Every structure is written in structure tokens, then in C-alpha cells.
Amino acid sequence: MARRLSVPPERRSIPIPIGVFDSGVGGLSVLREVRRALPAAELLYVADSGHAPYGERDPAFITDRVLAIAEFFRAHDVAAIVVACNTASAVALPALRAQFTRPVVAIEPAIKPAAQRPRSGVVGVLATSRTVASAGVARLVEAHGHGVRVLLQACPGLVELVESGELSGARAEALVESFVRPLLNEGADTLVLGCTHYPFLRALIERVAGPNVEVIDPAPAVARELVRRLEAGATPDAREGSEGSEGSEGIECFWTSGPLAHARMLIPALWGRAAQVLALPC
Ligand code: DGL
What we know:
The chain is α/β, with parallel strands linked by helices. 44% of the residues lie in helices and 16% in strands. The chain contains twelve helices and ten strands. The chain has a six-stranded parallel β-sheet, sandwiched between helices. Helix 3 (86-99) links the parallel strand 3 and strand 4. The longest helix has 17 residues, at 59-75. The two termini are 27 Å apart. Mean pLDDT is 90; it is low at 1-13 and 236-246. The chain binds D-glutamic acid. D-glutamic acid binds at residues 22-24, 26, 52-55, 85-87, 128, 131, 159, 195-197.
């Protein structure tokens, strides 16, 4: 079957599936940027909520889950996989790239762009314990952290808040405060959202941080990189005639390894519209 691949700037159409996954629902914050960049694409999303948070798991366990999800996507013949999970990227990317030969686009904490901002020179990174401790993040700091102080703040409990749908309220605010305040006290005026669940807590984070702190979410950059990789891989034949018809809308399908009834409430709420949610068979 000829693949119709095209990503013209205004009306992109990729009528082949793109697989996007996270340890849970956090990657929906990346999926929405992918949807913005590719309005007509078919998007498959896996929330591995039954095994979240990855951040407290063993690297071997995370790698096994990532490879199982990649196999699920391969069976659906996806054109590319987006790793919408910083923890999975930090731990399992080489294994994933060794197994899956089509494009793999992975999120990572936006330490590079944050360090390039000529501000106070103190950058705070909010992430899971596993991401904070990872060699991948150490490499990012080593490569891009010259001339700035990069403070890595593990935030246990925030993934669980988002997974339970608790995005506001005194308990959520106190937990966010407990992680953000120490960074502000150290002079951070740039905060990196180093976990894809945290954009769903962005309002709370910004409230604690105040108006003079810039909050950076790398999700739009991930979507741009996906488009670039798909364009680079498209053959001239595939590009031909592949523009989306005016008004055509892409579809999404969601799978979860967590409790189905909960996911069927939470995913549409976070996604902002009706969503078909199925049980993940792996
Ligand atoms: N959204 C995932 C990330 O970006 C959370 C990982 C976890 O479950 O701990 O790291």
C-alpha cells in the first residue's frame, strides 16, 4: 500500500498512524502538540498507567515496557513512534531504537533552550526521580549547562496527582510548592517541565513561581521534530497528492493498561473531547 505522506505547513495530512506513548496520561500534553502540527494524521496513544509511575521503577522494567509498547505499535504498522515520556527516553531509548527501525522521536528535558536564555543564570528542572538520576540528563547538563547553574528537582507524587485527575486544590498546590519553592529560593527564573505530566499542573506551577519565571515545555519542539523526520522520510511519490482535504480531521485512538473505567473519564477530560479508550493488550 502506498503511503501518502505530506506535511505542508498549513494543512498537514499523514493518513498513516503515528504511535505516541507515555507511562500514563502525561503524554497527552505531547499528543496535543502533535495533533496541532498534524491535524489530519491518525494518532494512536498508549497510556501505560497500569505501570506508572515509571520514575520509581527499575530501568530493566521500564525498558521491557517500552519494548512491549513498541511491539504493539509495530503490529499497528505505525510510521513513527513518539516517546512522550522523559523517563522512558532517559532509560530505554537505545533499546527502542535498536528494535524499531522507523523514526523514533523522543522528548527530553529542555535544558538546552533553557540554558540559552540570558536570564538569571539559574535553571530549575522539574522531573521524576529516575529522570533526574539518569545518565541522559547528566549528559544534557554537561553539554549545555556551561555558564548556568542547572538545579535538578525530583518531584515524587506529581505523576500520581495527574494520573488521579487531581490537577488543583490545596493538596496539589502544597506538593507543587514543596518542589518549586526551593528552586526559586536558589534564584531560578526559568523552570523546565521535565516530565510530560507536569504541563497539566502548569497553572499551579506558574501560580507558585510567579510572573517573572519562565516555564518551558519541550512538547512543541517534539512535534516539530516529528514533522521534520516524517518529511525527511517521505518519497516524492508519497508527497504527491497527499495534502489533506480542507476540513478533514484526524482521528485518535487511546489504549490504557490501567483501570479502564477511570481512563475513560480521565483521558477525555485531559484531551478536551470525546475519546475512544481501549484496554492495552500488553
Ligand atoms: N510522563 C512521564 C515523564 O515524562 C512520567 C514518568 C513516570 O511515570 O514516572 O517522565
